[in-house]
Every structure is written in C-alpha cells, then in structure tokens.
Specification:
The chain is mainly β. Helices cover 6% and strands 37% of the residues. It has helices at 169-178, 350-359, 390-395; strands at 17-20, 39-40, 45-46, 64-67, 72-81, 89-91, 97-100, 109-118, 123-131, 140-146, 150-152, 158-162, 179-184, 189-195, 198-203, 212-217, 223-225, 228-233, 236-240, 244-249, 254-259, 262-268, 281-284, 287-295, 310-318, 325-328, 346-348, 365-369.
Length: 420
C-alpha cells in the first residue's frame, strides 16, 4: 500500500514555516500503522524565503513550525546549531504549532528535526537545514570569565566581565541565560549583576570540596539588543581544594583555622585599633605577596604623626583591594593575643604568618567577627559576595528581578597597601 501524505504548503517571509500533515494509511509487516517507517515530507517545506544557497534566514525572526490540523499533528521538534546549542521552544497542546522561545544566532547553521503523526497514528519525519544571516553591525558583546583557570578555595566566585554595558532588563536576561556555570558535584547557584558590565556567580553555600567548575557562554551570534550581538567568550575551568576557613575573633584576639570543619591551628593575633577597626564579615583571599611595603600615607595618615608608618611587611595575604592583609607583624608580638593595635590588618608572628601564607590559597575564606569595624562591602573592595543573603543574591539576577546591589569594583590599578 502506498503512503499518500497530503500537505498544505505555507509561505511566509517573516517566519520559518513547515506545513506538515497527512491522511495516510500506513502499512507495516503486520498491517499496524505504528509498525510503518516514518513517511518523508520532502518537497512540502517552505521557510522564510531562501529558495537556495543565495539567501539566508533572518535571525531576528522566530522559528515557527505548523501542521495541518485536519490531517495530522506535530509530536516533537528539536532544533540545534552546528555547535550543539538547542533552540528552546513551545508546542501547542493540539500539536498544531511549535515556535521558538529563545533567539536564533546570527551567522549560524541550524538543523531542525520534526516529528509528526497522522490521524491514524502513522509517524512522519522531516529534517530541515538552513543558515542565518550575519548582522551588518559590528558591535559585539564579548565576555571574559574570571578568575584565571586553576585551583581555588571554596569561596571563589566566578566572574563575567562584559565588553559593553547592558542596562536593559530584557537584554540582561538574554545575557544571563547564555552564561552557563556547571559544577561536579552539582550545586544550586545564580548570577548576580554587580553593575552594567560585571556579573558574579556563586552557589547558595560555599562550593563543594574538590569540585570541578566550568563556565562557558552560548551568547555568540545571539542578538542582545538593537545593534548589539553576542561575541566571543573563552570557557573557564576551575577546581576547588579543601574547605579552608580562617575565623578571626577580634575581641578574643585569636584566629582559628579550619580545614574541612576541623580546627587545625589557633593563632594569637592583633586587629585594628580604635579608629582603624578591622572590617567584620566574610572575605575571600585575593592573593599572596611575600613582601609589601606599607605606608601610612596610603590611607591618609600624614607623615610625622603618631600614627604614621613606613614598614617592610612579609608573608602578606590580601583580603581586600584597598589593602587589608593577614601578615607578619613582628613589631606587635607583645600585643598579639591580648590587644588590638594595628591599622586594620590582622597581624601575627612571622612564623605564624609564614604558616598561614603557605596554607591558604586564593578563594579561601577569611571571616572576622566581633570587631567594632564596619561590615565588609559586598562588592567593590574584593569578594564580599558571601555577606549577601541568598534571597537578596537571587534578586540581583535578571531572571529573578533586581538591580545592582553596590558600586562597580575598583580599578585594580588603584590597589594600595592600606594598613598594618
């Protein structure tokens, strides 16, 4: 028995249309419709204009597939580009129409697999391939992920720096959907817009120990806003080590270092004295410097005054961009464990500072409690991301709704040693 699919050809200059339908009586080896091979809808396809290789589809227009409701229905549609990115879409309840809900990329080649069935349940299949045109504009939104690839502590956020500011909420949602962060083991996480060009990604809790974290972008070729299209982004791979958290109790003048929730060292320290109190809150190790020259003038202390200083400092572990460190302070060993006499840093003996310097890595957590100082800024002076509640963090996502929570990060060229 011959299959005689009947189609309604649909023409459109604005959308990609596939008219599918058939009134067929399918026969297989046992005469049951579902045992038949899928019929081919070749020659019954029309989509937004291109009759040959000389024209291409407009990526601004949605992908739409329709079926002849009188003769059959769509059962499934899968659309991917050459890099394997899927096009999200919705299928109507009656199977009469499928349309894309995510934007197409410019300058891309797409393959669409359409599955149908007729009124007798016989399956139909069609594969469509087409190219999208490249926009005339040359304005591209490139993405740079950070930090550099490597091994970090469990507190390290992933960052995304955009080459062009994005202010519109709808455009931000497009960007955010395209920026992917995956981890093994998997954890719940979210992006947060720090400002128009900066996003941070963190989990609800700290990263798992010995995790693999990968960030990549699907924004290439996607229209973000008028005359702005997604550009390049190099993927990023990070790993985490042990869960190392150093808790400094400013009132007890003591730091306790935990590895995987087990205390491994308790160190006498001194923190900021009145007028120079150390910031409370969670900070993330930003880097380590064996030697730093610290001057009081860098934080506005005039030379020759009782608070002025100009000191060589060793084993300095940075926790803010403005210059707060954990470091060796041999000049204050008599006060360590008893009094707070520094200008904001956490000071300890040279031996203890050397141990701390060798033990921690970027991304590890340094938490200060019971200080009379201000709270650590969430953004702009290091990674204070963990001082933001998860509820508030998610409000900084364009997919949830919200606005930047703080000032843009400081230009790193302005880094200075702040205190001792």
């Amino acid at each position: 028995m011959n299959h005689s699919p009947r189609f309604r050809t649909v023409a459109s200059c604005t959308t990609l249309l596939v008219a599918l339908g058939a009134g067929v009586t399918a026969c297989g080896s046992d005469g049951h419709p579902l045992s038949a091979k899928p019929y081919d809808a070749a020659g019954q396809i029309s989509f937004n204009g291109p009759a040959g290789d000389s024209r291409k589809a407009d990526p601004d227009k949605p992908l739409e597939i329709t079926a002849d409701g009188d003769e059959g229905r769509i059962t499934d549609v899968t659309a991917t580009d050459a890099s394997g990115r899927y096009v999200a879409g919705e299928l109507s309840a009656d199977g009469g129409r499928w349309h894309s809900t995510s934007p197409l990329a410019a300058g891309a080649r797409y393959t669409v697999h359409v599955s149908t069935e007729d009124e007798d349940g016989a399956p139909g299949r069609k594969v469509i391939s087409f190219d999208t045109s490249t926009p005339k504009t040359k304005k591209r939104l490139n993405v740079t992920f950070g930090p550099e690839a490597g091994k970090y502590g469990v507190g390290q956020p992933v960052t995304a720096e955009l080459s062009v500011p994005v202010k519109d909420k709808a455009a931000r949602a497009i960007v955010e959907r395209a920026l992917k962060v995956d981890s093994k083991p998997a954890v719940e996480g979210a992006w947060h817009w720090v400002d128009d060009k900066t996003l941070h990604y963190r989990p609800k809790e700290y990263w798992p120990t010995h995790a693999t974290i990968q960030a990549h972008s699907n924004i290439g070729g996607i229209k973000v806003a008028e005359r702005l299209w997604g550009g390049q982004a190099k993927p990023l791979k990070l790993t985490t080590g042990d869960r190392l958290i150093a808790v400094t109790d400013a009132s007890a003048h003591s730091m306790t270092v935990y590895r995987n929730d087990e205390a491994i060292n308790e160190i006498p320290v001194t923190t900021g004295k009145p007028g120079f109190e150390t910031r409370n809150g969670v900070k993330v190790v930003l880097g380590k410097e064996y030697f730093v020259r610290m001057r009081g003038t860098s934080i506005g202390i005039a030379e020759g005054t009782s608070d002025s200083y100009d000191l060589p400092v060793y084993y300095a572990t940075r926790v803010t961009w403005s210059g707060e460190y954990v470091h060796a302070a041999p000049w204050s060993t008599g006060s360590q464990g008893y009094a707070n006499v520094s200008h904001g840093c956490t000071g300890m003996s040279t031996d203890n500072a050397a141990w701390f310097y060798e033990t921690v890595r970027e991304g590890d957590i340094v938490k200060v409690i019971n200080s009379y100082g201000e709270d650590m800024d969430p953004f702009g002076n290091g990674f204070g991301d963990w001082n933001v509640t998860w509820k508030k963090w998610r409000k900084g996502s364009a997919l949830v709704g919200g606005a930047p929570e703080g000032p843009p990060p400081q230009d790193r060229a302005r880094l200075r040693p702040e205190s001792v």
